[in-house]
Amino acid sequence: MNNHTIKVxxxxxxxxxxxxxxxxxxTFEGVEVILEAENGHELLTQLKNAVPDVMxxxxxxxxxxxxxxxxxxxxxxxxxxxxxxxxxxxxxxITYLMEIGAxxxxxxxxxxxxxxxxxxxxxxxxxxxxxxVSHAMLTGLKNKTKKPPKIGDNYDLTSxxxxxxxxxxxxxxxxxxxxxxxxxxxxxEGHRKNLISKLGVRxxxxxxxxxxxxxxxxIDNIK
Length: 223
Known about the structure:
single chain; five-stranded parallel sheet; 223 residues
């Protein structure tokens, strides 16, 4: 078990909701809220002084919304895991947010248990795919021909990179992948970075979206 305290930030223009999420999150063992902001612009200012591991980010905000904030965070703070908070279930928006750098998407009416799970999973694995995200991906792929996983597909992936890709899809952490493939965590991270670079994406969540679209993996591979 990782003993690191997961530092969390909350950005939402509704103070009551923000305070409620903060109170709930601070009850989770090993989780601490270190940053609050009303919009994306204020968030970027505060990030100069405190950088969380996981950012809970509202979608609709004045001054700078969640879409623009996601792009800015990805450019300036690539290590932050972004969990989008929204009441909207529009599938194209969900997949778009994942493609531009969000690590997960959670509805605002989710139970506290799902909030806790999302924070821990996205911190450990780099992505959080719940039912809403999985359904959005399936909908986007339903008109595509289902192809079995294969090496290459014009991305010049090695057999080892394909193995790492499939294990990422299964939800394994870097240390778990390393143990399974009998390689060092540093080597595993090297393969992950190569996959992200070759597929032209920003993080593991976007990597899986792209791999699904290109038929490198199927939705059944994702756990």
